[in-house]
Design a protein that fits this description.
This protein has about 250 residues and is of the alpha/beta class. The chain contains eleven helices and eight strands. It has a domain of about 110 residues: Rossmann fold. The model has no long low-confidence stretch (mean pLDDT about 95). Bound molecules: NADP nicotinamide-adenine-dinucleotide phosphate. NADP nicotinamide-adenine-dinucleotide phosphate binds next to helix 1.
Length: about 250
């Protein structure tokens, strides 16, 4: 497929590299300037693009930038064809993104993104840690293949996203409409806990919306108590430990 990715940081970069490696035609854009973008694109094995060109002649557009920067894209995204599937990978963290009133008041994050961008989006690629995304993929049918959640209101768009998720080495689990996508936001049992399909479905069902923001901030507080940067295993262990029904790390 022809894919544009806005944001070439940790997540946008991993998605770009992996989708290009499975034969997709990937171009990338980020706001950090031409030279930085060209170097990053070379490193990822994809094409650098200008801001205007990133939305041209694509079937899928992946937005992978911090939540706080999403409003900066509203003018650009308004020009995107209705036929393009727009994917939102974002997670809202107040310590990083600041206070966004609607989100603080409990608006579902990707509903806010969709309203801010003025068009439908599919939420995906948000509930796996960078390490899982980069190294956790397995061939279809493999034992213990990690599952990724996605949500949105357009079934056909979700089928396309599900194919991309599988191409990256993960099973896809449809978590429902965009309004349901809080079930894989930070602070829920489905968020960055590296589960297989049956476990992820259970975790999506077990989430409690009113607890999520508190648990998200609690987890960040715990990570800040670490004397060194927490490892991938540390993060998984802590995330899973917040929810009694999640499997524990071995
Ligand atoms: N890290 C994780 O484990 C993880 C997992 C799943 C989802 N997510 C979510 O995915 C999103 C991206 O995360 P990340 O870890 O990849 O962030 P990151 O490493 O900080 O990268 C952010 C990227 O966004 C670009 N950017 C910022 N503002 C922009 C704008 N207005 N227009 C175009 N590009 C812009 C930056 O460009 P420059 O570098 O050129 O300045 C950078 O390439 C976040 O919402 C995050 O919460 C993160």
């Amino acid at each position: 497929m022809k894919i544009g990715i806005i944001g070439t940081g940790v997540i946008g970069g991993i998605i770009a590299k992996k989708l290009a490696a499975t034969g997709h035609e990937v171009k990338v854009y980020s706001s950090g300037g031409q030279q930085k973008l060209e170097e990053r694109a070379r490193e990822l094995g994809v094409k650098p693009s200008t801001k205007d060109q990133i939305i041209a002649d694509v079937e899928v557009l992946i937005v992978s930038i911090p939540t706080i920067a999403i409003p900066e894209l509203s003018v650009l995204i308004a020009k995107v064809s209705d036929k393009v599937v727009v994917i939102d990978t974002s997670n809202y963290y107040p310590f990083r993104d600041g206070e966004i009133e609607d989100l603080k008041n409990g608006k579902v994050e990707s509903v806010w993104v969709s309203e801010t961008l003025g068009r439908p989006v599919i939420k995906a690629f948000n509930n796996l840690l960078a390490h899982s995304l980069e190294y956790g993929g397995k061939p279809e049918g493999a034992k213990d293949r990690i599952a990724m959640a996605m949500s949105g209101d357009d079934q056909q768009a979700k089928e396309i996203v599900s194919t991309l998720i599988k191409d990256m080495g993960f099973d896809a689990v449809d978590a429902g409409t965009l309004a349901d996508s809080w079930r894989h936001q930070p602070g829920t049992p489905a968020y960055c806990t590296e589960l297989v399909v049956a476990e992820l479905k259970q975790a999506l069902a077990d989430g409690e919306k009113q607890e999520a923001a508190h648990l998200r901030d609690y987890a960040i507080g715990k990570f800040m108590e670490f004397s060194a940067l927490p490892t991938h295993e540390d993060v998984l262990t802590l995330n899973r430990s917040l929810f009694p029904k999640n499997p524990k790390r071995h």
